[in-house]
Design brief:
This protein is mainly beta and 120 residues long. The chain has no helices and 11 strands. The chain has strands at 3-7, 10-13, 18-25, 33-39, 46-51, 57-59, 67-71, 75-79, 88-95, 109-110, 114-119. The strands form 2 sheets. Strands 2, 4, 5, 6, 9, 10 and 11 form a 7-stranded mixed beta sheet that branches. The protein has a 4-stranded antiparallel beta sheet with strand order 1-3-8-7, with no helix packed on it. Strand 7 (67-71) and strand 8 (75-79) form a beta hairpin. The radius of gyration is 14 Å and the shape is globular.
Length: 120
């Protein structure tokens, strides 16, 4: 199990940009998948982007071309051309159950979340 901590949320007008950062503490092994999820008010949590244990990155259709994931010492999510529908609490997550076939649908280790608010 690892500890996950997000930072970088805030409020921005539509069309603006924000950068979220996620730090992990603990051992991150070669089978770990990492991801960003979000949950809007009254809606279920949804996946935004995942990076597999093999380094493959997959974005949700709703954010393709606008959000960019980068991974170094932290897992950063650069969000451009933000829309009001991007408003949500964003969560970073990690899970050790990655395989050659992909990542799990559910994740074990989540951060506390960071609020992103986009006004029109």
């Amino acid at each position: 199990q690892v500890q996950v901590a997000e930072s970088g949320g805030g409020s921005v007008q539509a069309g603006g940009s924000l950068r979220l950062s996620c730090a992990f503490s603990g051992y991150i092994g070669s089978t770990y998948c990492m991801a960003w999820f979000r949950q809007a008010p009254g809606k279920e949590r949804e996946g935004v982007v995942v990076i597999s244990n093999l380094g493959r990155i997959n974005y949700a259709d709703s954010v393709k071309g606008r959000f960019t994931l980068s991974k170094d010492n932290t897992l950063d999510l650069q969000m451009e051309s933000l829309k009001p529908e991007d408003t949500a609490v964003y969560y970073c997550a990690a899970d050790a159950r990655g395989t050659d076939y992909g990542c799990p649908e559910t994740y074990n280790d989540f951060g506390q979340g960071t609020q992103v608010t986009v006004s029109s």
